[in-house]
Amino acid sequence: xxxxxxxxxxxxxxxxxxxxxxxxxxxxxxxxxxxxxxxxxxxxxxxxxxxxxxxxxxxxxxxxxxxxxxxxxxxxxxxxxxxxxxxxxxxxxxxxxxxxxxxxxxxxxxxxxxxxxxxxxxxxxxxxxxxxxxxxxxxxxxxxxxxxxxxxxxxxxxxxxxxxxxxxxxxxxxxxxxxxxxxxxxxxxxxxxxxxxxxxxxxxxxxxxxxxxxxxxxxxxxxxxxxxxxxxxxxxxxxxxxxxxxxxxxxxxxxxxxxxxxxxxxxxxxxxxxxxxxxxxxxxxxxxxxxxxxxxxxxxxxxxxxxxxxxxxxxxxxxxxxxxxxxxxxxxxxxxxxxxxxxxxxxxxxxxxxxxxxxxxxxxxxxxxxxxxxxxxxxxxxxxxxxxxxxxxxxxxxxxxxxxxxxxxxxxxxxxxxxxxxxxxxxxxxxxxxxxxxxxxxxxxxxxxxxxxxxxxxxxxxxxxxxxxxxxxxxxxxxxxxxxxxxxxxxxxxxxxxxxxxxxxxxxxxxxxxxxxxxxxxxxxxxxxxxxxxxxxxxxxxxxxxxxxxxxxxxxxxxxxxxxxxxxxxxxxxxxxxxxxxxxxxxxxxxxxxxxxxxxxxxxxxxxxxxxxxxxxxxxxxxxxxxxxxxxxxxxxxxxxxxxxxxxxxxxxxxxxxxxxxxxxxxxxxxxxxxxxxxxxxxxxxxxxxxxxxxxxxx
Length: 699
Fold this sequence. Notes:
Blueprint lengths: L3 H10 L7 E5 L6 H11 L8 E5 L11 H11 L11 H12 L5 E5 L4 H5 L8 E6 L12 E4 L5 H12 L1 H6 L1 H11 L3 H13 L5 H9 L1 H7 L8 H10 L3 H10 L6 E3 L26 H14 L4 E4 L2 E3 L2 H14 L2 H26 L4 E2 L17 H10 L1 H13 L3 H9 L2 H7 L2 H18 L2 H17 L3 H18 L2 H17 L3 H18 L2 H17 L3 H16 L6 H18 L2 H18 L2 H17 L3 H18 L3 H9 L31 E2 L4
Parallel strand pairs: 1-4, 1-5, 2-3, 3-4, 9-10
Antiparallel strand pairs: 6-8, 7-8
Helix pairs in contact: 3-4, 6-8, 6-9, 8-10, 13-14, 13-15, 16-17, 16-18, 18-19, 18-21, 19-21, 21-22, 22-23, 22-24, 23-24, 24-25, 24-26, 25-26, 26-27, 26-28, 27-28, 28-29, 28-30, 29-30, 30-31, 31-32
Pfam family, one: TPR_12
Protein name: Tetratricopeptide (TPR) repeat protein
GO molecular function, one term: ADP binding
């Protein structure tokens, strides 16, 4: 193993000119002892009076070594006659510090269990101390300790370890399979060493066969164990047995989480009723607040190096630790209890995402949901941007929660988890994720037997298929949605689905049919008294007429829409900004360059503030068109390149057309570049969002 950066870090801490106390922290099997011994071997000449090593036995299965016993061992190693070693701990400490006062030693304290255990063994004088531990010995900071967290090996170092143990030629012949083993072991040296030992013991075993053997999560921990004591399973078991019973239960239940990372808030769903009121608490708190208790549990797992904090308030398991937690869960928790806890986690995600949904898209129609247990410790959002940031952060977990809900026979919950992602999909696109989410939503609705829910997901699925260019599938889904809405007796939903059909016709070369439907929808929405849906139809119709070379007619319709959404600014600012993008295009078509620039500039500002990057790029594209018409070549290209970069990053089909446009010659050079209108774009954006206001009752 290279570990050159870590060796350099330790070296730097010991070169401060003062006696150093360094604590290497990390989970069992990450290579703390090996690194400490290697560093000590490299620097023997810097400690002329020698090096002392004590295994404090903190995690060996037996009781940790008593400080008095360790001091006796150290004193004898320093030349104290056995009969002169004092009996009491205080006398031993005094003699130890007297003996070491004039020496320059390195004391290596391996597998330390507690601050008190280490503190008694700190020498005097110029000596240095290097400690290894699975627990965060933060109390030693008061003694001047510097804490160094040791991470798993990177992929290249992992493959290098395998190569050195089995022979470079063998690994070089199957590099992809070796990389797969390194990935499965997730950089944990003990796991890599077991895998390498198995390969070394069986010269005819291919690396590919080994990788296949380890691919099964069910048997992975067993196959990463050996009879000679080198065992991933045993390493984790030792840490697990040291946990308070409440923390051990919390650890097991974390294996139910549907995603690779999790925030602190959701972990409150793992706590049983009355948590913290039985037995001694695993931390100092007199609070029964679920969030506080969950924080105590998380701290205990961090202390035991069984959990990693990836960013503030967000955590993850090492892959192999997660498998260990799942194994303990299946062994120690009855299936009915597991299912109750799992549903609590999934319902927490639904409730939290709904809080964000209500902030970002308050106008949406929703089906009610009956929670098994009312979720607690939910986030609160000050504004749309904060809510969208949370949805983006939890995107993978929300997708995983939906999959898990459907797999475990909760179709209503699975549908709700698909439905509640809409604000994220509207503003941030994620078309490929959306395809999966909407397909699962349709499947869940059918299992649930709720026609309106099926219709709504079919409508969404048709729209995303339109965006992805699968027009045949899009028409099939949208027509099915129209039929289901009729069966459910939902006129409003049927009109929304027809809006999707018109958009499909527009994008698939059937513009005349699209215009006809959009005009009909404007009238129908007015008859329904639905101002917002009327405004949406006006936007779609106005943009289409602009594309068909009728900017005068389009401008009038878009001005109407502008008035509609001016009255809905607090409810739907997104479509209020979309009106301006459409209006900029219509004014550009009329030759009103100043008006087009004003509209596009304001649209860009609003979309940037809303975090809707796709529409921000649309506005930049409009500004580029204005600059082209003015002959300002450099400015036009700058706008278009900025828009193109966003479209490419989002996987938008707009990228291809804009790239072609950039290859066309344009007029004479103008100004040097675009003004700094709104700053850099931050987040992806959305699309037309149809739907009436209010909450539905299940039909």
